[in-house]
Fold this protein.
Amino acid sequence: MSVSRAAQTRKPVDSTPRHFLDLCDFDSGTLKSLISAARQRKKARNGYSRGAEDKDAPLTGKVLALVFERPSTRTRISFDVGMQELGGRCIMLTGHEMQLGRGETIADTARVLSRYVDAIMIRTLAHDMLMELAGAASVPVINGLTKLSHPCQVMADVLTFEEKKGPIRGRTIAWVGDGRCSSSRRRMRASVRSPGRASGSSMTSTGGSRRSSTEPSRWRQRPLVASKR
């Protein structure tokens, strides 16, 4: 049996799932396109009731597993309602309902979930657990919060800022909160990768908006006040 020249030169299909684990995994152009798509889809929903499916319902027939090792309100509701609006549905799972890292390994859990759902969102304090899950899953994994990173929150923050205040580029943003929290620090650094490309004295910057941080002196570990260039 002869093989066509096209078949001989065809590149193998990359079956590796595309995860959303950290903003630093993506270039600013990709992140900007995600913000733009979210803005357009939100605008198209004007006049829709909450929970009503989008006209195109791109995730019809898809199932998202929501795995919460830690309690959640906003993340849980937003993912569930968002999935319904896109035409899909969710399965809610908690650490108490699963053998997450106890009766079986994280990798085993990832392989089992991959057989039944189309994507996995997980909220866990241990970033290593997220990485192990993503490494063994054959479906996309979304970071719903770890101690190290909260990429979905950063993207939502940028979208909301630009809706209320206009383009984030060139703006000065103050972070007021517990600076000991690695997630908040990571959020500031990750903003360098966001469409606004925020910068501060503790970050390497190529321009864009400036960020400063204010926290009680008893919490302060090192300066985070943005300096002018």
